[in-house]
């Protein structure tokens, strides 16, 4: 009689555990897929830097955004050479100054870099005072001049205010509006879409007719009309809150329509029908079975909706219907670019456009990477 020396087959749990990714969570799988997309990783890094910059805007701004200097002034280039061309450290900038020589045509003093008075640069320097998180008084800045003299890496506007500092501070308002609006839109749109798609019938019909009415509104004229109702003398917080409410009220309908389509498909899946058969409540089915399965679509929609809100706020701010002084936003800064002659003479005031482009690219790249990472197929 032959004896076979064979071991029993491993348990099912061990088989799954030994497979690549067999014991990983859903978030681990999404992260593993996202790491394969270099555009998604670039978007993730840029988004993290933008959020970090907006949170610690006062720390990263080299100057007081409300401090005035000399009116329009061009960007000051960072130099590693002295006036004789010798390599020096630390780096420095040379502010514009009037020399003793006169222009042979206009007989005006020639304006050029003042090589005799360099402004040395450094990190973690002392500058304008501010309150970190509105509570902790400090004067430490991430970079700037060592002796606290004004430096303008992106030039100044018509009032002599530093463009770079205002753009960094403006990121706080622009991103706050975008993230708040998208959060409200996501909560309302996801809830309405899931409830409407799950219950169906006449309830779904009436909800969708209301959604279509909201989508049928011409949004731009309505934005301008609603924001113009707020008086100029209203407190800035009231005006900012009203802008967020208007954007949210007109933006949730598209999200609800997308979530409703996903819910209609999920409501016919076997495990949802099984939950109905065993007597699970509607609330449990919606939030325990349907909601986790629409979250992947919602996350991608959020990352792709944020750039549109940033562009909308910039456009409304450019027209003067979004943020009012003394608040600072990218759209409000772009009001100075309304004149073509100003752009031709002082092109550096277009610097906020660069911040808007980077923000739009970052969230779109992250959204594209997440769309591929969360797709189970």
Feature tags:
377 residues; 12% strand; 6 strands; MetI-like fold; alpha+beta
Task: Give structural notes.
It is a single chain. By secondary structure, the chain is of the alpha+beta class. It has two domains: 41-58 and 165-373, MetI-like fold (Orthogonal Bundle); 76-151, no CATH class. The chain has 13 helices and six strands. The chain has helices spanning 12-18, 26-34, 38-55, 57-60, 163-199, 201-216, 219-227, 236-266, 270-277, 282-319, 330-333, 340-345, 351-373, and strands at residues 79-81, 87-93, 96-102, 109-113, 119-132, 136-145. The strands form two sheets. A four-stranded antiparallel beta sheet has the order 1-2-5-6. A two-stranded antiparallel sheet has the order 3-4. The longest helix is centred in the last third of the chain and has 38 residues, at 282-319. It is elongated and about 85 Å long.
What is the strand and helix layout of this fold?
Elements lengths: L11 H7 L7 H9 L3 H18 L1 H4 L18 E3 L5 E7 L2 E7 L6 E5 L5 E14 L3 E10 L17 H37 L1 H16 L2 H9 L8 H31 L3 H8 L4 H38 L10 H4 L6 H6 L5 H23 L4
Antiparallel strand pairs: 1-2, 2-5, 3-4, 5-6
Helix pairs in contact: 2-13, 3-5, 3-13, 5-6, 5-8, 5-10, 6-8, 7-8, 8-10, 9-10, 10-13
